[in-house]
Design goal:
5 strands, Nucleotidyltransferase, domain 5, 147 residues, five-stranded mixed beta sheet, alpha/beta
Length: 147
């Protein structure tokens, strides 16, 4: 199952795809636009051309776990994405993904001023990796329960 992860943002939206088996994070893309309709159209196009079967979108929670205005905006966008693609959209807690993406790029020698166009794709890959790990754990638990 090919899964598409989305780190939706105001100016840039990072996208990451799993491999066809749905086990590993692979390809990444960046959508540069502040226009919600442009971002939506590009995400629909990517989902179709890359063969996505499930979408997972970063969901911004506050550090205390509560939801704020950005979460409402993201949930509304996820509804539009679901309607436009016909695919399930899972909202995935994205706390710390951008912080972790900055750390990863810094650890690999990418200077702060050169991170702008990479950070969102890395954050999308982190969202995807977290979701894939969750699915693996869930599958292992189900297998354990049936044996």
């Amino acid at each position: 199952m090919r899964i598409m992860a989305i780190d939706y943002g105001d100016a840039r939206t990072g996208v990451a795809f799993s491999d066809p088996t749905g086990l590993l994070a692979g390809q990444t893309f960046l959508v540069k636009s502040r226009k919600e309709n442009v971002v939506l159209e590009e995400l629909v196009r990517l989902a179709q051309t890359e063969g996505a079967q499930e979408l997972v979108m970063g969901y911004p929670r506050n550090m205390d776990g509560t939801l704020g205005p950005r979460a409402e905006k993201y949930a509304a966008f996820a509804d539009r994405l679901r309607a436009a693609t016909g695919l399930p959209v899972i909202l995935w807690d994205e706390r710390r993904t951008t912080v972790d993406a900055h750390r990863i790029l810094g650890d690999h020698g990418v200077r702060a001023k050169n991170r702008k166009d990479k950070i969102d794709s890395v954050a999308a890959a982190l969202i995807l990796e977290g979701y894939l790990d969750f699915k693996r754990i869930q599958a292992a638990r189900q297998k354990e329960e049936t044996t």
